[in-house]
Amino acid sequence: MTTETPVTTASAPYTGARLLTETVVALSERAPAIVAAAAEEMREIRLGLHFHDGSKATMSARYSRLLVEPGVVGEPDVEVAFDDRAMNLVFDAQRPPVEQVLPQSLDVRGPRDRVLAVWRAFVLLSQRASGLRFVQQLWRDYREQVPRLWGTTAGGPAPRHSPHGDEPTGWHAVDFLANRQPLEPGDQPTIGGTAIAAPRLLWDGRRSTGWWELRPVTDADLVQTMTACRARANQEIDRLLPDREPKEDLYDLMRSYPTRQGKGLRPTLVFAACAAFGEKPENAVRAAAALELFHNGFLVHDDIADESTHRRGLPTMNAEFGNGLAVNTGDGLNLLAVDAVLANLENLGLARTLGLIQEAMHMCRESIEGQAMELGWIHRRVVPSRDEDYFTMSTKKTGWYTCITPCRMGAVCAGVTDPAVLGRFDEAFRLIGIAFQIQDDILNLVGDEALYGKETLGDLLEGKRTVMLIHLFRHADQRERQRLGALLHRPRADKSQDDADELLAAMRRHGSIDYATELADRLAAEGIARFERDLSIIPENEGKAVLRQIAHYVTTRPL
Amino acid sequence: MLGVLGPFPESQLCHLLDRQWLHYAFVSPTTGHAVISNLSVLGVEYPADGSSGRWSPQRMAIALVYDPVHGWSSTQFNADAPDPAWSAFRLPHPHGSPGPFEVAAVAGLPAVDLRLSRTSRPCTAQTAPFGDDQFLRWQSEPGVRGSGTLRSPSGDVRCDLVGYHERVRGRWSWPVLGGWVFGFANAPSDDPAGPPPWSVVFTLIQPQYPQDAANGSVMLWRDGRMVRHFPRRMLEVAVHGELHRDRVVLVPPLAATLATAPAPAVPGRLLITARLGEDRLVLDFRPTTAARIANPSETSLKPFSVHELLGGCVIEGVVSGRTFGFEAQGIVEFAGDARDD
To answer: For the structural domain made of B18-336, what CATH number should be given?
Structure first.
């Protein structure tokens, strides 16, 4: 969710409004598919929330984002008042909401259809999010800090996960699992295991349920999953890096970029796609490592080409060690990436390794073609006039290696080599990739450097052809275009921060950033629709749940 | 002669779905190595041309070797196996007289070369009727001791094992049979030749229909003799969590090259409670690794999977007012999710 005026700070008092806001913010980051589904229900509705502690908030939906603002803003369509007993209605996994609704504890007012839409949104948030560990932690913290918010609940303490109720039950198997000897959290798998699931009875002496019978697939916690996947891929990179000289001038440098704090998007896609097709994620580890190595090799070379000075909050390799060592390190990373692909021979066999080589070669070709398109525009001082040119360049330059190839390689690791099946990832993730890239470009203009990880306005200093720039040059008059062109085409060393600020001001004046935001949202929505349609061949499983969360990452990303 | 030859393993097969399985599972209490083997026979099939001759029954054998450092290795389904194979159910079969059990991959590895000996007595045979005219009959004996060499691609290991042996006879098909959960644990013992002080074997068979056909039991042995049989109405079986997919290894080797369809996640914990009068038993099994044996379907591309799980097993209970308990390595089998036969 985007909080346009944040209502939460570390020192803010514990209030109902804050709890709700933090929950939605956390869900937007860690389980965006849930927020997107709730936003779909909330569309067009402005919801006023009144909490018993006197705090108020207004919730509305914009595209797939849920926006929460402090206080009551405007004229809400639906108003909900929670009393001190009703707060635990939403995310208390211990007891179903229906047990907690007490007379007058929950006052909802508004037109009937809108009240029902709000109810659906809350049911959806409650059912899909309450099992996630981070949500439980958030609500547990609040309950401990402000027990009065929770009030008293009806019907005594919450029942345990027991079909036998609250009574001491002796020797019931589920009671042992839920209460007497619960399963302690183990080490985290790369895919799955981010939500709490209750024990299941297979046989109670009367009724039989097969252990294999499918349960609803829980939504994944994207942050936890990406952290685990990234760590696993980096561990493999460490294993692949040779332990020999020259360390200081080559191998240590090769290690430095992958260990910088990236999101872990690519390895997560590789692991998740592999798991989605039913293979164990471990089989995708070398492909994930290879992609990270290719990516970092490209980044090193990209930073040289762009004359960038900072990457993920630290000086770029060319800025710190000079272009010569940086070029060599980039070559080393690409070579090691080829090694990582070939290393699959021993665990995946020849056919899958050949498939991976084909995917990697295709990705490299697309990337260098995209890079050539962009550098050519800069070299020839051209700003393309059509968004489609940007789409093509962006897909080639970043779309393939950020989204499409990781998915395809994950599927190949699972033994999928049919081009028709692999091709089902292409259009969905092409659209999602473009949306992601446009959002990245917007964040470079308006984002916080600490959060974004790259230098703010760096794209303007580099003269990067973004959708905003293309829109600006399309809508500026002749005279302004000449002036802006002169600024844009200066060599980077000659560009000042003032030049970048002037370009940014012109973009704001012409509505280029708003245009790009709308465009990214539209492309993201199309991408999601294609995801659901094209990938319906994959059964619902923990791998697909992660892929869906990543697809929705672009729809709920705060801008 | 009246009726078919018998009893199994000498019995005659008269239906195309008649099956005979001899199952062996052993684990080393000291080194953690494990051996699982299944020798199966699928009944006769009559030629389609109407001739009166019979085809030979289809014989398959598979052996899995688990090494705690190098993990699972497996033969294909065509392992070389002795015929007749060692079985506690061939009589007379006195205790303390070891017999050979040699199963090896056609390619040579993995292979097991063991001397097996009985220390205990079998449970009573149990039958689960289900479907329209299908049934499964089984009988197991824990406390079987093995000694010899396990050969795997990671090298040869000599070790002493203790486990169990089971014979299964029946007439069944998938998906009518549905699935099953069964397993065992033998309590550790200082006596390398005697029966384990305690053993537990459990079975839960979950046919697709009729609704009330699920069957199973938990059985408890004391010093080689079965002392309690907890029948199906007196059991509860529950699972929790999932074993990481990365800890599930697909076997036999050929399955990995055939783009084998995915299987459901294996439970991360199994808990069984049983009670009978004042007697109580709780079995808590936590797997650490599993081998997924993908059995090719006889009629479709979707395999039927049997998961062999290794892990720690904690058992405690009260029998005749006496409390007992032990911890040991156990082997549990989860089979199911067959969509075709």
So the answer is: 2.40.370.10
